[in-house]
């Protein structure tokens, strides 16, 4: 039930963050990845919001996700555009490929779904092992301010058939020592004032300090670590930035 992205959660995600919706990351990484001649990997590919535009830009990108429901949306998005989506169902902790990559990109804070410090550091090492020499790791993180906002929010979406989808978000735990939050997400599907289906998920995230994450990257073997604020490469993060992007290199 934790960070699972089941049927309703994936449906809501696909409506709220459709393929091609950018938060500044698509344009930024399209430029950062231009010129890659070896394959690129996107872990936690989700519905293809980021993955499909990279394919359309001519980037040889592969992707994986633990949610079969999310992969279904991604495969469909590739198919309707006649794109070859090289996708598989895998997890951060156990993914494996026979090839190495020119870059591994984890946009929009997906890495923060890893809530254990040792777990996250092991995944950073796994990324390192799957990069070619001089390969680059690119990860977006949300700063702490994005974790501690108001709780109890209710959002809604209207489906193509006129049904109503709602999401109620209640934060049930904040651990300032472990740097984690746990929220209870209740998804509901309504039709003609009647509840058709409901789904309850626990959603856990971990926040990182900028220096803490840079040190963890170096501990995993990465060099040339650059932290950038709001998709402005090389501009040091500032307190009001909504996104912090890290880029690091596996040395030759």
Automatic annotation (TrEMBL):
Signal peptide: none annotated. Keywords: Methyltransferase, Transferase. The keyword Ion transport does not apply. The keyword Ribosomal protein does not apply. InterPro entries: Methyltransf_25, SAM-dependent_MTases_sf. GO terms for molecular function: methyltransferase activity. Residues 40-135 form the Methyltransferase domain. GO terms for biological process: methylation. This is Class I SAM-dependent methyltransferase. The lineage of its organism: Bacteria, Pseudomonadati, Pseudomonadota, Alphaproteobacteria, Hyphomicrobiales.
């Amino acid at each position: 039930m934790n960070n699972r992205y089941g049927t309703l959660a994936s449906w809501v995600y696909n409506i709220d963050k459709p393929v091609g919706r950018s938060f500044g990351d698509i344009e930024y990484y399209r430029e950062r990845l231009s010129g890659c001649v070896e394959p690129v990997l996107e872990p936690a590919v989700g519905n293809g919001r980021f993955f499909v535009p990279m394919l359309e830009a001519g980037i040889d990108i592969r992707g994986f996700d633990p949610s079969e429901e999310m992969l279904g949306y991604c495969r469909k998005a590739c198919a309707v555009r006649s794109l070859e989506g090289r996708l598989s169902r895998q997890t951060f902790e156990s993914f494996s490929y026979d090839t190495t990559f020119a870059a591994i990109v984890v946009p929009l804070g997906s890495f923060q779904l890893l809530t254990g410090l040792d777990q996250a550091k092991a995944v950073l090492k796994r990324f390192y092992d799957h990069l070619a020499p001089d390969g680059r790791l690119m990860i977006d993180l949300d700063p702490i301010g994005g974790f501690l906002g108001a709780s109890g929010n209710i959002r809604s979406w209207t489906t193509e058939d006129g049904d109503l989808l709602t999401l109620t978000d209640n934060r049930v735990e904040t651990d300032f020592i472990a740097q984690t939050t746990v929220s209870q997400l209740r998804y509901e599907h309504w039709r003609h004032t009647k509840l058709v289906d409901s789904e309850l998920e626990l959603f856990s995230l971990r926040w990182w300090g900028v220096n803490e994450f840079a040190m963890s990257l170096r501990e995993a073997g990465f060099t040339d670590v650059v932290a950038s604020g709001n998709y402005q490469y090389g501009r040091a993060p500032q307190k009001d930035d909504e996104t912090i992007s890290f880029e690091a290199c596996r040395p030759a």
